[in-house]
Amino acid sequence: MSRNKKKGVCNYHIALVLLLILVLSTNTLSGKVTDYFKSHDETYGGTSRFIEAGIGYFFRMILVVKIVHGGFIPKYAMSFPNNYHAAIVSNPSPNNPGVFQLLAHFISILEPFFILSILLTGFYILFMPTSPASRSKAKNILLRLLVSMVVVSLSIPILNLLLGLSTEMTESVFSLVSGEEIEKALGGAVGDLFWVYALTAVPHTDLGLPYLTLLFAMAFIPYIVIGLRYILITLFMVLFPLGVLFYALPWFKGIGKKMLEQLIVWIFLQVFIALIIVVFIGIGITIEDHVVMNSEISFTNLRGMYDVLSLLTVAPSAAESGWKLLAPISKVFGFWGMILGGAIGSAVGVAGTEIMLNNFYEAMPATVNIVDFVLGTTIYAMLIIFPLIWSHHLHDFLP
Amino acid sequence: MKKNDLILGLVFLLLLIAALPQVSASKTDSPLGGFFRMISGEAAKMGRKGASLYSARLIHNFYLSIFDNMPTLIEANPPIWSIKHFIGFFINLIQPLYTAAIMLTGFYIIFVSQSPLNRARAKKWFGKLIIGLVLISVSPLLVELLYFVSSTLASQIMNLADVTVALGSFRAASQDLFSIFRNLIIIHRDGGIELFLLDTVLLMALYLIIFIRYIMAGLMAVLLPVTLLFYSWDLTRSMGKMMFEQTIIWIFLPLGWAVGLVTTSVVLASLPPVSPNVPMEFIYMTSLIFMFAVPFMVLGVMNWMGLSIFMFEVVQAAPLSSGSVIVSETTIDRKPFEEEEVVVKPPEDY
Lengths: 399, 350
Fold this sequence. Notes:
The complex is a heterodimer of chains A (about 400) and B (about 350). Chain A has about 400 residues and is mainly alpha-helical. Chain A has a domain at about 85-165 and about 205-290. Chain A has 16 helices and two strands. In chain A, strands 1-2 form a two-stranded antiparallel sheet. In chain A, helix 11 (about 255-285) runs antiparallel to helix 16 (about 370-395) and helix 13 (about 325-335) runs antiparallel to helix 14 (about 335-355). Residues about 25-45 of chain A have low confidence and may be disordered. With about 350 residues, chain B is mainly alpha-helical. Chain B has a domain at about 50-80 and about 140-305. Chain B has 13 helices and no strands. In chain B, helix 4 (about 80-110) runs parallel beside helix 9 and helix 9 packs across helix 10 (about 235-275). Chain B is elongated and about 105 Å long. The model of chain B is unreliable at about 25-30 and about 300-335 (pLDDT under 50). The chains are: A mainly alpha (about 400), B mainly alpha (about 350). Chains A and B meet through helix 1, helix 2, helix 3, helix 6 and helix 8 of A and helix 1, helix 2, helix 3, helix 4 and helix 8 of B.
């Protein structure tokens, strides 16, 4: 870990020093260098434009290959496909010391309220007999208060029961398809999107922007939804005694009902997230049978583009460097020496790019087809949209 | 890894050395040098624009296949063999509950209940439970029926007019956007990027919404036993109703597209004679956006449309914000604690 970190720091240092030299050199060295290369530059110096384009291309390639493919994808984007099971199945426990203390604290706050409301109801029944109907209502409230006291004192077993039921159901839903298949589908979705991004971002950063945005969304939003669920369950678990008290009192029944309903909705959301993934794996892939034209992007195109861009941009600049480095030889050998220097420089440039991109090319699939690509995006879109629809539409189910 | 870094550094160095004289040696007296400089500069820029255009064209053609696939994708429903496995899981989950509920109701009728009113109520539950049990057992067939009706109706509607006219117009709209982008990007390397994004995002959204429909139709069909259970039990009836509505909406969404395609075809055939000067490109683009909106319009789920409304949904969905809704609801809807008037009559012999 520390070795990697050290290496990363070292790389940054090299890049920074090089940039610094680049900037400084333009100011300080210009005079001397101008004199030295002037004779050559007057005739053949047109490659500077290629150098500009080459530097731009090179930076975009580093963005795609090193930063996104080498850093972002394995660290963040592939995190959900690799840890989906633990992320979805995990639940907060009411036995956790922090949650337990908060719950106990809330119950201790509620105790006087319970005592007070029971006393008041008792007094009402005993001493203020206005009408039989209101007396019966007061009796009803008393009964509800007593039942809610029992429920509040059993809140931890009740919460454990709900959470356990939800976890077990989630596990049984996940058991319908194999874990490897799910991992493959989710990972494939990220991969397909990345390769389309790689195709668009190298020529122009803006072309790849929607795909980069989608990659960010894919990496973080499932975790945000699951994290939100985790936090909200903890919150509503702590508020459970309060919800039960509110639910028992007719004046606050609306609030209590909402609180308990939201607790149930967010707890059982887990089952439905699992169900979306499982149904997607089982049913979604059959859409391929209905597709007339499954269009494809061949990644030989991408590789070809990278190579051609290297030739167009890196090679002339490398050629010029080679030619200038070998300037003494070119003075001796004349025109042919200059050609030799250029050839060596461009060979070094292109070969360097090829070797550097070797791992990247190895990871590259041959093609990506539209069905796989859209299906991958669909599963993530559903993972994001469905919980919101679910939690919004489910209400008013408690009596 | 280390080798790569070394090479990266080397290439950087080469670039650096090459970049040195470009700043210093900017002046040139030779006309040939100036010409060469200009030509190579333009070639470098054109190379970059060409690369952008090349990858943009690949992506554009990738998405353009939506219009070839649209008629079959609209009619498509998940095959029943892929659903049976999952429906079976839920039927197995629910059937014991039903058996227990029916047995308990039977015991109640035979041994517990005393008053005729309660017995009648229990008998009503009994009837509902039996109907629910039967419906759940045949739910795969029910799903098949719904799918059949949906796809048959969609194909029947699409046979009413030549939908290839509409599809051709969508394709033309997309091609128009792309050709404007192509012309602009040749002039300037940032030109028309927005048009390209609009084009691809629209096409991608069409694909996405059709795929989501397909999977949601499968998901709601898988949940049909649960829906029926919720619907047949008084306590969860509202939830069952909501789920049933969703099932119907997602399964019958293709009718919206079918109607949209047919309408677009008819409009495109009838519009040019009426207003010959209207540029058709705008009509094409409008119809493409219309296609995206039409299922929502037809099925009356308009409130799902639009980012602002979606954000509203998100805000609504978060229970923290619904706290304010609760308070307002309880303050507005709460009725005053009414005391029923009980007239205490004096005894006859008062």
